[in-house]
């Protein structure tokens, strides 16, 4: 029995152990399957990741076969240099070949008559890649800098568009490996030596040897090899531009070749003692197209590096019109000859020159031979440069555009910034001396005093424009100019109205173009926004179209309404006649807009103007390094006029349409406000429809004066001596100018006002004499006498009332007490006479008079800067100008500035400007205006942001 029990126990144990073994096996199996699945999934994901990574890496990867198309020995596209054509595509303007013409490709095959010098090949490999023949073509590195010759080759020819990055580094090494695998080491080396850069417009060792040494690259001595390798490593220090530096670099390369064992010491010494004979630099004759070609290259440089353009194989179809270019060059040449001799020395040589006006002798410069000038012609309807020439009075053409101080040529951009912030061409500005020094006072007569902004811009009235600049803030104006492509810096804001920024003809023309197109600009991918379009087509060395300028995109740069306001001023021939000498030189007999520019030192003058067809910009000034007497702006105006007349000789006159949102309105000159009966001159002005004036003119006011004394008439002035005169009311700071200019000012003294009551028993004590009052007024004084019978208080309108209204009567005497209460709220504003009559018992009467002015009308006030919702950029100095406009029939006493609910200051005289230390964030501004009677008006709240 015991044995049976033991048997059952052992059997159960075996069963449990077998069960555990089977369970363990199942767990192991499941774990194994899980691990296998994870590994399999990981392999799949890794494979997918690698495949995706490879796909991303090789996406749009250039074909390695492109190298063969570019560098085939006889048919490679890089054999032909890059050429620039005129707009017809038939005339070559320039070839970027260093004056060498078509290139010749050589091989590295030993013994071939077409092979590079073996020493050149050996030295190149020793210095740049000793393991070249065994290398797979790429280096095991993530550095984006090329390490092998194959990497340099594909980097220069295939990947030049891509910025440095890890992706580019991997793609470069992949292409380098493909190049060696596809073409072999020898062809890759030959391709590199045939395309490498040895200097500006010098590509390939063969061209370098011919240009620097006058010999081919098949048979070079060690010194010559070292010279070429030095130029290869430092193209800027080439034998043409820096011969001494090039020879010093050559000696350094010789030392490296000696240390590497490529040459022995005797060869080294021989090469040191007999340096290579360098060809002299050949100065090619300049052409009228040189500056244009240089401008095209500079404009393309941001997208297409110089190495890409100069390496060859490209075809540039430019916008240049060869006929217009020839006419422009001829006109400039004749123009300078005319300045020298004062007559039309060569007027018959071309049609454009025959349109040049004959300048008066008084305008001819004393040193005409020291002058230079330039002009650009732009097609307004396509934004294309049609002609561009710069030259000096000696007939030498510039090889690059010069930068000239632009001076007052930038004032239209000040106007644009002002119009965008609530001002208008009619806005009143003050052209008065900024200081009261003896010199300023003596010259005050040359200032214009109050004037519309329109006339200040046309006449370049610095004092007035300085005040506008102060109101807007120079950073705001600079930001506006930048939006139209002008490359201005913050530092140049300080000289914006004096010297202006140094600018080129193309930059000025492009910035003025939106005024001619009423706000539109032309955009082409790959072309800078600061330049008029000068390329119609750029065909790459691979035969594809890299830049398409034939169908530019048209986009608004500024609103048509703002552009029209500026254009309307530039096209105002009447304003030019009022303010500019020789304004007839800016007249074309057709609608046209033009601006002359002056620099403070008078060394450069400009004229920029346009019609709906053409825009022409010209400058005249002294050559670099020359100075002389200040030049007249008429020098530039005459040249501009002649070119424009030639361009429009067969075109019918055409005007610009007035865009919607523009309103013409009669205003009083010069306040720009609605005219009153006292306004002596009403003019037609142009406004944004949303920004029409609502206030009536307060600059001119009618005063009653004693014609004998010239003082303000009062109730005591004999009626027969009173006459009304209209005067201009000026702020205190304009008093000195007005006196110097002989402008009659309104009298400030009153006529015949008793200093003490004539009768202490019958007089007024309140209100004071000549006071401005409003609302309900308590009339106080005395009406008493020993035989007092009664008194009455009356009021009449005007200095000599015809009718009287009784305010109060009394049967008891009053001694320095209340005589009457006068409710003025329903009365018209104006002068009133209070009359107090005392009646004695014997019916004798005594009277007292008191003159006052009733004013129950609150002033008008609005915030002009900043505009509602505007975002201001906090300037460098942190100070922002807040600007308000206020007016009242009898005068504004003060303006109270309230920012974010807190009063930040008061202003007591126009212009109403408050300088504020700006704080970043959102703000609310309102202004309270108070007149002389105590009436108050609060402007609408303006919400703006500072960032």
Automatic annotation (TrEMBL):
<keyword id="KW-0573">Peptidoglycan synthesis</keyword>
<keyword id="KW-0378">Hydrolase</keyword>
<dbReference type="InterPro" id="IPR012338">
    <property type="entry name" value="Beta-lactam/transpept-like"/>
</dbReference>
<keyword id="KW-0645">Protease</keyword>
<keyword id="KW-0511">Multifunctional enzyme</keyword>
<dbReference type="InterPro" id="IPR001264">
    <property type="entry name" value="Glyco_trans_51"/>
</dbReference>
<dbReference type="InterPro" id="IPR036950">
    <property type="entry name" value="PBP_transglycosylase"/>
</dbReference>
<keyword id="KW-0133">Cell shape</keyword>
<keyword id="KW-1003">Cell membrane</keyword>
<keyword id="KW-0328">Glycosyltransferase</keyword>
<feature type="domain" description="Glycosyl transferase family 51">
    <location>
        <begin position="148"/>
        <end position="257"/>
    </location>
</feature>
<keyword id="KW-0472">Membrane</keyword>
<dbReference type="InterPro" id="IPR023346">
    <property type="entry name" value="Lysozyme-like_dom_sf"/>
</dbReference>
<keyword id="KW-0121">Carboxypeptidase</keyword>
<dbReference type="Pfam" id="PF00912">
    <property type="entry name" value="Transgly"/>
</dbReference>
<dbReference type="InterPro" id="IPR050396">
    <property type="entry name" value="Glycosyltr_51/Transpeptidase"/>
</dbReference>
<protein>
    <submittedName>
        <fullName>Transglycosylase domain-containing protein</fullName>
    </submittedName>
</protein>
<dbReference type="InterPro" id="IPR013783">
    <property type="entry name" value="Ig-like_fold"/>
</dbReference>
<keyword id="KW-0961">Cell wall biogenesis/degradation</keyword>
<keyword id="KW-0808">Transferase</keyword>
